């Protein structure tokens, strides 16, 4: 990422309108949301279809000259082309794994307007892929599928690191652990780019209403707003960072950003102090970046982002 301290607003849309949802099953013993293996593989395939369309679409939209004119290295487009073909390979593997349960590709609308804004969004989406596999892993039961998912996850992480570092000139990683996302959170981050899906994609859960934080200065108050008229007052913003989750109650419409936040974090609104799961999350997901230097020095200003194209 560029090192400017500007705040990039991640304007998440509401997925509920898309008519494409993740199946959700209730675990009667604990009343907490759980997922079976097929549902997790369907989420993975949904996100792989999206990534595949995202990368291949940008390659169609922008040629080598467009890339270099926009300040990206000349070799970047060739590598993005490799990523596109690797995402397509993930689609094929998961499609074959799911057989008759495979979901089909949807129509998408991505907000990038230039190679640089595409690269900024590519960094976020690759990170979401990593977080989706990390969060979904606990629901996989078949040994071969766990192995396949691990092999895909590390490949997605390598894409994310390459895009964040050499291409976008920012932090190639966050902390010692990538951040797992709940299934609903991972879906919500992808769903905002889905405009319509085949009716045969019979799945069942909605994306969360959007969540926006106004200001991501470390240790400072940030105004919290949610979509769908969700009332934020008194609820908690859960900051996901690595394996840690920090809860901050919304007071006067604001939360103070945890001052030790570093690298990529995600924020969701939850009605529970201490639990942020798909049963308790009421809005999300905000993507937050807290850049730091090679000596570990934090920049004072974080950023909230999805796409520079949205500015
Ligand atoms: C997984 O859950 C879906 C939706 O509830 C259900 O249709 C499917 O039969 C379940 N699959 C397995 C293998 O339990
Ligand atoms: C690249 O695309 C631009 C428009 O985005 C066009 O003006 C230019 O001619 C193209 N260059 C080549 C080599 O195709
Ligand atoms: C994608 O959009 C086209 C054009 O609007 C439409 O004909 C097609 O049915 C859509 N496909 C899906 C999978 O929603
Ligand atoms: C963010 O908060 C800091 C500290 O309160 C303030 O100085 C800064 O102006 C705020 N930035 C925006 C964009 O609101
Ligand atoms: C939000 O509340 C207003 C006023 O009650 C209502 O008109 C609007 O439809 C609501 N919007 C949503 C998305 O629920
Ligand atoms: C979690 O938070 C603790 C205390 O702030 C910190 O020492 C640790 O590095 C954090 N771990 C991760 C994985 O972020
Ligand atoms: C939320 O939980 C934390 C840790 O258990 C506790 O310190 C804090 O007082 C709780 N906040 C509220 C508003 O109950």
From TrEMBL:
InterPro entries: Ferritin-like_SF, Rds1. It comes from the Eukaryota. SUPFAM superfamilies: Ferritin-like (SSF47240). Pfam families: Ferritin_2. PANTHER family: PROTEIN RDS1. This is Ferritin-like domain-containing protein. It comes from Lentinula raphanica. The lineage of its organism: Eukaryota, Fungi, Dikarya, Basidiomycota, Agaricomycotina.
